[in-house]
Amino acid sequence: MSTITFIHVDGTQETLTADGISVMRAAVQNGIRGIVGECGGQAMCATCHVYVDDPPASLPEMSEDEEEMLECTASPRQGASRLGCQLRATAHFDALTVRLPERQV
Ligand code: FES
Question: Domain for residue 88, yes or no?
Answer without folding.
Answer: yes
